[in-house]
Amino acid sequence: MIQVNEYFDGKVKSLSLKNTQGNFTIGVLTKGTYEFSTTTKEWMTLTAGKWEIELPNSSRKAFGINETCDIPSGITFTVYALEDSAYLCKYE
Q: Per UniProt, which keywords does this protein have (predicted)?
């Protein structure tokens, strides 16, 4: 079953699904700054737009289209959406 998720007063929305290949979300973010926390390892791939991601004890890093950020479990990190953007996220 596909689940609809909405965060930050509707500025971030995603659809999630689970299949034999794992757990996934595909979503969109409007331009802005968003702080997320993880409970599992995640891989976030930018599919459209422009963003930078800041992990703990690290500086902001820009990711290009189809580039993936490896995000550890149990952290809080920040996404700076420099324009409206879309992503694919895989969860371990």
A: Glycosyltransferase, Transferase
